[in-house]
Amino acid sequence: MAAARYRLSRRAALGLAGATAGSVLIKLPGSSARAQTLDKVSYMTSWRAQAEHGGFYQAVAAGIFKKHGIECDLRMGGPQMSASQMMLGGRVDMIMSSGLEALNYVKEDVPFYCIGSIFQKDPQVLISHAGSGNDSFEKLKGKTILVGASGRVTYWPFLKAKYGYSDEQLRPYTFNLAPFMADKTLVQQSFISSEPYAMRQAGADPVPLMIASAGYDNYHTTIAVSKKMAAEKKDVVQRFVTASLEGWAEYLKGGAAAEPGNALIKKDNPEMADDKIAYAIKVMNESGMVMSGDALTLGIGAMTDARWASFYDSMAAVGVLPKGLDPKKAYTLEFVNKGVGKV
To answer: What global pTM score does this model have?
Structure first.
């Protein structure tokens, strides 16, 4: 689910996949049934159904999208699937993305941009064993770290420049916990809301270090859309964003409030057991992944010009992105910062 660089052909069609109108019959108290027109919007996540996508599932299952006149076709991502290619080809209207991916859209001259960020903190962590002496970023210099291919071209150059790491420390990460469990000197990449739980279940005592705490300010679990759709279907896009943010505000309450979303997650992905889901919701709340920083005053999904500019500068400084790009082409603030979910 980490950001990746896309070399996309602009010759592909930019259709508005599924953004058509349908209708359902609704019955209001004391009235006869009438037709309510629903605008169909398809949204593709970055991976299989999980709590980290829970607000979108909640908005579907609890009728929040329908309340805003949206019929949401929520689709799972997965391995060997390029959501950006699917949106470029007109097969899906919106996709789950990240700030770095949006900046790469600018680099590649792809007509997409980011219209909201659910996670204020990138959930990526480097994780070590308790008692190994690897409990801070400074102490990881010279230590063996398992990092996947995408991490090596996104957050690794940033960490390497800030803490003096070297590429000689790197070993491949194969999304298998066995090497970490067998060697207490290893450090590996993980998502704070998932792998630590599996490690504890297996008997380890993991120590996660969030790369966001090191200053890696990538927006994560974002909503990306073609600029064409945002211009031509502005009202539909706004209602989709608002409903999504309301879904997240409700889902993060956890417990009974989140049950509609959780039931749909488990239907789409039976591997998501109740305990895994509860752990992820707890960590998302405790770590401030959704509600921290600008979201505390501007609401869920918040983004700012200052943070976009600062993050771009940090990525250009370490060669992840070329200098001279205009980061303002990567996003719009038009659909967020409206106080949704603000305490």
So the answer is: 0.89
